[in-house]
């Protein structure tokens, strides 16, 4: 049933990367499985507990990594010639923008996290002074 759902999604949104991912996309999937997914429970713990300033560096690493991968995916959606693909891909600007809208939240949320880690005074590093 999950494969049927995946095929329905790929057909409805013209996303051939889900059914026949390019090699670079597969590399992003492995990064997600082995780097990003382990981060989620750690981050959930830190944010639910509150006051965990140690999450700043892992969150910055996570968010910049995800944003970097999403820039490549979004560029592929906007500029790739899908007419050569075996599976239906977006052809018109509207179809590309619809597919882009599916992936865009995966960029916006890490950027919001990055902005929070860099700009929120709670997470800014405070230098400890040595007592004399």
Q: How is the biggest beta sheet arranged?
A: none
Distance between termini? 67 Å
Unreliable stretches: none
**Overall domain count:** 1
Number of helices: 6
Please state the average pLDDT score. 91
Main location: endoplasmic reticulum
Keywords: Endoplasmic reticulum, Membrane, Transmembrane, Transmembrane helix
GO cellular component, one term: rough endoplasmic reticulum membrane
Domain EXPERA: 1-114
Write out key terms for the chains shown.
6 helices, 132 residues, single chain, mainly alpha, Sigma2_recept
Description:
With 132 residues, this protein is an all-alpha fold. The protein is 70% helix and 0% strand. The chain has one domain. The protein is elongated. 14% of the residues are buried. The model has no long low-confidence stretch (mean pLDDT 91). It is a multi-pass membrane protein.
